[in-house]
Design brief:
Helix content is about 35%, strand content about 25%. With about 450 residues, it is α/β, with parallel strands linked by helices. The chain starts with a strand and ends with a helix. InterPro entries: Amino_oxidase, FAD/NAD-bd_sf, Flavin_amine_oxidase, Flavin_MAO.
Length: about 450
Amino acid sequence: MDTVIERDVVVVGAGPAGLMAARTLAAAGRSVAVLEARDRVGGRTWSDVIDGAFLEIGGQWVSPDQTELLSLLSELGLGTYPRYREGDAVYLAPDGTRTRYQAATFPTSEKTTAEIDRLTTILDELVAEIDPDAPWKHPRARELDTISFQHWLRRESADDEACDAVGLFIAGGMLTKPAHSFSALQALLMAASAGSFSHLTDENFILDRRVIGGMQSVSLAMAASLGADVHLGTPVRTIRREPGGSVTVVSDHITVRAEQVIVAVPPPLYSRISYEPPLPRRQHQLHQHLSMGLVIKVHAVYETPFWRADGLSGTGFGSQSLVQEVYDNTNHGDTRGTLVGFVADEKADQLFALDPAARRERILASIAEFLGEQALNPVVYYESDWASEEWTRGAYGASFDLGGLSRYGADLRTPVGPIHWACSDIAGAGFQHVDGALRMGRAAAESILAA
């Protein structure tokens, strides 16, 4: 017979959001149980040793605006270190031309550079009008939410290279969806969550630092403080609202009776749980308009960071390249060199149709276009494929389809009786980042405490 326990609050999911919620509640004297489907904590943050190399399989970067995360790192005594960025970056133009550069903007033609700057200014002005916690309140919200970001860019500019360069930072770099599949308002939320669109285009800001020991160490430290109240390998199957207002949460190995429940998993996984009685119509509709992106995060480890000897930073961009972004991802104190590259949305679809050997060959050839033939022969190679993960199903997070954000956004965090929601996908500031997950976990816990 499954174990039955009683707690004040049960948390579904042991990622940063769920663990922050549990930690906040426990600090206030509430009893908690955290139920996690995986055999580990950390959610979409995961650090592991693959073939002798330490790799950050999931989320990893810390930017200066992520104050919730920075505060927690300080509290937990976890250090950070800067991403290597000395030397030239590499830009691959749509025609394949390779250019080394050190400027803050891509080395495009004078005309295209002016268009990129003009589009960036327009986006920064719009972002300044957006409340990241309530983008649907913008006077033009529906207008901006019913036109795709791709079509909005083409409406503003006839320069394809400029449009693709600007689109790269949100489509491939953040939402990991084609720019025709999400709205201009969704793009503005992504930028507003980081403070400005200019922040998203500045890799020295958005990809500033990493956590010594890996981002998952944040979740590991929070889980350690909760001890036996974190239960792994026990997927939640049913959340039952009882007549008196309490809940019964049934997982594979443990049943928890509690006053409140916080569901701290990505929205596309909400439907993996049965709700008795069913959730309201509004929630059913809302959840169907959110979907995960798709990206292959590629890790290539070399005996040395060979690109540095050539005066390269390891950073590369190419909106038409197979690997659209590449960065030096060498670990703290490591003598070996690590590169990380990203293949997003439709390009990832094409590669997943290939066998693993052919996929690896094409990916490394694309990285070599940026950094030279030495990139073809890593000593360790690994692909993070979150879309195949049963308890994630995509990366980096969930975003709305056209029209969904203005229509349903205001209901994202609305509790259903004793059921509360917390994850990075419903955050304003820190949207789709660990920082946003922590904010949402704390907010859900504080809402329960206030009630």
